[in-house]
Amino acid sequence: MRWLFMNDAIWNRYKAELLSWVGTPYRHMCGVKGRGVDCSKLVGVSLINAGLLNGFEHEYYPSDWFLHMDKELILDYVEKNRKFLRDGIDFVALSPEEKKMRGDYLGFAYNSPKGLVNHVGIMLDDGTFIHSAIMRGVCLSHFTNFWERHLKIILRIVEII
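Below the sequence we write its predicted structure tokens.
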């Protein structure tokens, strides 16, 4: 296995796709560039548009699901959609203490009394990550101590060789 985004051409294509979403407003359960997207659909749709994911299944969930459910909904979606990854690539789960690398899928337990992953973003290569925030839409944020405290899991896309 090797980290997929060590390939600059693949990374630059994916990064361009991610950055093209900046400014799209936050909309729960939506995934349309310029119209609205939530954090998990940003990940799925951007991977499809970059040619890394062949499809994406996403069932309805209430916006406050993490307050009254005990289910790791976002991580379950990752597992469910693994079958849609392009041949020869996969996700590997890493602990939050691992070094973050460009393209890493970051799972945060933010404002979640049960500690469930309820927000996601994608690490960029300059100490920032991109995500869809409720009040800001798709934006770039610096990976500060605040985010480090809430990081619960890192998912890295790897090539199977």
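The first helix runs from residue 8 to 19.
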